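User: hey, got a sec? need CCHC-type domain-containing protein folded
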Amino acid sequence: MALVPHGGGAGGSATMAMPMVIADNYKVWAIKAQAILEVHTVWEAVAPGDAAVNARKDKTARALLLGALPENVLLQVSTKLTAKEVWDSLKVRFVGADQVRAARLVTLRGEFDCLKMADGEELDVYGGRLAAMAARYTNLRETLGDVALVKKLLDMVPDRLFPVVAGIEQFHDVTTMAFDEALGRLCMFDERVRCRRHDSGERADEQLLFTAAQWRAREWQQGRARDDDDGRSMVSGSSGNRRRRCYKCGENGHFRRECPQLWKGPAAKQALLAGANVDDDGLL
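Assistant: Yep! Here you go:
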């Protein structure tokens, strides 16, 4: 920043610092620069109104302004011959940048409002997307605080995590909870739910699935009992050949335990699939 000497009473002098202007601080810089120019009684060169500008004051104000510019900006405005031209050029340059930043912020806020958790998306992946959104806010000199991030996270989680969301909201102050803490609690609960479902699923499969051999043995026993109990197997008197009749489909030539219709149901298909898996495992 430029050091600006000025009268300090009783013939003394003091040093005031003219801050260096950058795109991120133009509004603040303009306030400070105006105050310093007023101290030196040269602000009228920048905002002259209807009065004529004193040439000496104009040169002093222009020198002060040029001394507060970085090299890349200085080269662009060095052709401006008056303090007012320098000031107006800086205003157009940096206020325009502020307007672009404001427009980008509006777009970014809309993206954040529409940011939802996709079907099948992992919780930590969604948390990473939220963290990336916070970084984009920082690049635009804005802050996406933990309060907004935690609220968004708790609102977007899948149904299986609602119990832990209710617990967090009941026993913790979500307005002071850090985003990383909320994400960690949800991930821990989600992992426990997945483990319990995995264990329960394995036990259910063991109880419900029959191998093909078990299914055939079960149907053979049921068919034999049915044939023995009914006593309806008939033998022809003339030829002595045994004539078989199925009481599942009503057709002759086979017993119920041998009926093809027994293998058309969903349970039979499930058994065949299980049997195929068993055979494949044996080959491996």
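Quick note: The radius of gyration is 42 Å. Let me know if you need anything else on CCHC-type domain-containing protein.
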